[in-house]
Amino acid sequence: MLLDLAQLKPNTCYHLMTQTLIPRPIAWVLTASDEGQLNLAPFSFFNAVCSDPPIVMLSIGKKTPEEAKDTRYNILTGRDFVIHLPSSSQAEDVTASAATLPYGESELDLMADNQLVEFPGCPLPRLKSAPIAFHAKLHEVHYLGNQQQAVIYAELIQAYIKDDVIQVDEAKGRYLLDAKKISPLARLGGAEYAGLDEVFSVVRPN
Known about the structure:
By secondary structure, the chain is mostly beta strands. The protein contains four helices and 14 strands.
């Protein structure tokens, strides 16, 4: 089947993209409102774009044509935020936190496991159960498309990584992470997610 994307309705194109550009990592983003209430929401239009400085990209739309999503609004105020990478065991809580709520109400109240712990050096806490969390700050924002999608570039300030998934490779001056132990939750299309069934290496040619 050959599809002319320019002829598709935006919603049809969105669903086609989310079912073909797979799997996608999930940024589970914790922010604070103007009054300090915590907001948590997942976004899968997300990835790394730079390592010096370390920057990731989040693409966040609107609740309505007139109202920005809470996470987008909170980040664009310039406040610090936390990007978690959820594990596959957290799929139900990730889904619960995707609910659209009035500004100031917290998705944490909808989750079975919402325990927070201090994130030293960050003004916000982090989710205790998430294996990876980044303290982030707004670096830059661009607006794209007919609906003015906010493409947010976030600079990573510090990282929390669960002790049992990381090792130090002294010889190479790197950190080694165990992907199977992290068991990252990946986004597919519709209501579908994926986990890691197999991890394998391929030898690079000289």
